[in-house]
Amino acid sequence: MEGGFLPYMDDLEKQELMWSCVESNLFPSIAIDQCPVVFHPEYDISFFGLEKYHPFDAGKWGTVFRLLEEWGLVSPTTVVHPEEATRRDLLIVHTSRYLNSLYSPCVCARIFEMNFLCLMPYFVTNKYLLRKMRLQVGGTVAACRLALERNWAINIGGGFHHASSNAGGGFCVYADITLAVRMLLTLNLVKRVLIVDVDAHQGNGYERDFIGDARVFILDMFNPKIYPKDSKAEEAISRMVHIDADMPTDRYLESLFDNLDTVLGEFEADLIVYNAGTDSLEGDPLGRLELTPECIMKRDEIVFQLAKDHATPIAMLTSGGYQKNNAQVIAESIKNLHTRGLIQLRAAPPKPAHHHHHHHHQQNQAPSPNQSPNPPTGPATLLAVPKR
Ligand SMILES: [Zn+2]
């Protein structure tokens, strides 16, 4: 296979794919005073309060951003706002038949496991749900592109690893990972991509899309006893690690380190797509694993450290995990990566005061994070995660 082309494509289809990638607006520009964190205030889902009846923190993404902002680590102007993926962008991955099926609210109802959606007209599901997903898809493409420029990037969203070219499922409607990887391959910006998936679930969506593609190496650590149990998709997994609730934390982290270190030594990747779902957190009704918040933080640290040691760019996606405390754990983990010097977050400098009495007010000003790149941290900071 060459570029992002598929074996069955004729010349016209290849040309169309190439132009769709070249003309896409999903690759962002980033200013010198911005950090490669990708987020849009409209990531969050709200359905007139109906979303509260779903076991799902529909405001997870906004909460992660707000916490990082409160801690003085990012500002609205220092993060990158993604573009919404257009139908043309989505056709790089999806069949038009599948995209057309989403006009039926009942198809969305099944994918999102929210039966009331069946009663909604399309303009409602599109505006309040699908559009937000398309923004997060744009975020994933942006993060993968930015990682090549800045060595790391984080999309505070995305990671819809159950969606494939012709099907959605498990809250995932668009195949953002397949899209980002295929665009970069098509444009020859990368030759080989490593997908590291530590979400509790098997990443069967992009796996189905990459069956038989030697340019994509998939390391998937998941709980085999839960959804989706997709044995067809398993064919695409290059290194499969089964996790269960009895696995002690240190063995989990050891296994992650050993597997990833080996893979990075053997497979020369131009990019790591890190699907960092947090539904492996203790108490998650879907993931059914029992990792502590500290373990999740250590997990992300190991992956970023190994990426750095092997000089491989990494793009992180937040993927699954929708308990009320997931956002806090994700934000703490991103903060930890910053504290350890594995990523460099950036907030806007405080606005210069416009009056003549600076000295009276200076003591009230929060210190700029740029003045102290290594804020003090310790067990107190690391453990400041609410227990369920
Ligand atoms: Zn999951």
UniProtKB/TrEMBL annotation:
It holds the Pfam family Hist_deacetyl. It comes from the Eukaryota. Coiled coil: none annotated. InterPro entries: HDAC_classIV (IPR044150), HDACs (IPR000286), His_deacetylse_dom (IPR023801), His_deacetylse_dom_sf (IPR037138), Ureohydrolase_dom_sf (IPR023696). Its EC number is 3.5.1.98. One of its GO terms (biological process) is epigenetic regulation of gene expression. Residues 352-362 have a biased composition (Basic residues). The keyword Nucleus applies. The keyword NADP does not apply. Keywords: Chromatin regulator, Hydrolase, Nucleus, Repressor, Transcription, Transcription regulation. CDD domains: HDAC_classIV (cd09993). Interacts with HDAC6. This is Histone deacetylase 11. It comes from Pristionchus fissidentatus.
